[in-house]
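dude i think i finally got it to work??
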Amino acid sequence: MLRFQPQNQTLFKMKEEIKLRANEIIAALLTMPKLMGQLYGKGKKYDDLIREILKCNYPDGGSLKLPSSKELQQRTKLSPATCKAYLEQIYYGILEQLTQEEIRWEIKNIKCEFWVKGYATTGQLFFMNLPVLPRIGESMQIGFLRPILGTEFFTVHEVRHVLRDDEQFIEVELSSKDFNLFTRLLDDKSKFEGTYDWITQRRGDSTGTYL
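look at this
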């Protein structure tokens, strides 16, 4: 379980100093529909806006076309300034929930997505849950994929953890190409020194793979 712990003073400072963008708020709210739903029906003026936002949701493991601020204004008959103000109130309302001791961000479902690149095709997406997740640089052998990908031997190139509401999506990228930690370190070094360019990148892509 995760819980944010900013002090009230820090949260107040964020509201005063950070200028939020409406479309970024909408995208963020759609990753937390259940917590947003807890703000609905409390007698606030933004109830209609929450109801319209909740009509959109992520398909299982996918993405969606986000409603724009203008579209929400048209649906709720709100002015641009009022819509923006309500979006900020909803966003900070959720953030304040996460700072309370009795409310914790609890992850209940874990889903693993594997994107596999082989020799025969550009890639294949499939889903599975493993008791032990592979780490970057480790090897995996999946014999079932050999007919369509031309190989059964893969290396883990990236592992990303995406949190949406009460779900954790673990995205694992596998490739038939070798993973080279040295080229990744060289790329990181050149980025740190400000010398990274397309010539440097030819040494290895962002995952440390020889090109």
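The chain has nine helices and five strands.
im so relieved honestly
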